Amino acid sequence: MLLLQSRMGFSNYWYLIVHIPYLALLLYASMNIQFDFYLKSHSKGPGVAKRVAITFDDGPHPEHTRMVLDILDSFSVKATFFCIGKNAESHPDVLKCIDEKGHIIGNHSYVHQTWLDFMPPFVIKNDLLKTNQLIIDAIEKEPLLFRPPFGVTTPSMALALKSLKMECIGWNNRSFDTIATNELIMKRIMKNLKSGDIILLHDILPKHKEVLPRIIRAIKDASFEIVPLDQLLDVKAYA
Ligand SMILES: [Zn+2]
Fold first, then answer.
1. C-alpha distances in Å from residue 119, one per residue of 22, 55, 74, 82, 157
2. Residues within 5 Å of ion ligand 1 by Cβ?
3. Beta pairing partners, 173
4. What CATH architecture applies to the domain 42-233?
5. Average pLDDT over residues 89-111
6. Residue 211 three-state SS
7. Residue 174, pLDDT above cutoff 60
8. Residue 224 CA to ligand 1 centre (angstroms)
9. Residue 129: what pLDDT?
10. Domain regions of the chain by residue span
């Protein structure tokens, strides 16, 4: 009996030793889009030319996205906007404006919740199709680029994207603009800026009135060209 108990104790211990790190690894891989663990994501472009892309997530926002568009216009810069379906539903006019100004629109899910990434493929697929349809209704173009909410990737998402023939887009230059001060945002972006970088920003933040022009000026002063994602990655933005 004692022997059995000690064997069970050991096997439980062994189970924990093996499985906890394994589960931790799977979770870590899910949370880090650059790992390409479950699916191939585009997290950076080729580093051959001095080109980078600026991407904006979580809009469209009725005021701040328009402010961002005006700033981009003033520098003649084209960017990429990953829009949340429910925001697109509320502000199709802003979506239209993004497109008319020559920027690219991608899908950033309808619900923008972490749990979506862990749902079965058909749930993810329906969410993406719903968002695609809202974008089609506004700009008459069917997006092929998708950025997962919070950059979380899973096997379910890999299957859903494959069946929709959509590309998964990540980033490799993150400013944490949702929480960082403007000084820190500048420092983070410029510290490691290199050819092929995909910079992650959010067009829902009033702070971009002050910091976005500084970011663009600093990138241009460092002799980088800012291009939309389809040019940086040589992929099709729409079907
Ligand atoms: Zn987001």
1. 21, 26, 42, 21, 8
2. 57-58
3. 199
4. Alpha-Beta Barrel (3.20)
5. 98
6. helix
7. yes
8. 26
9. 98
10. 1-31, 42-233
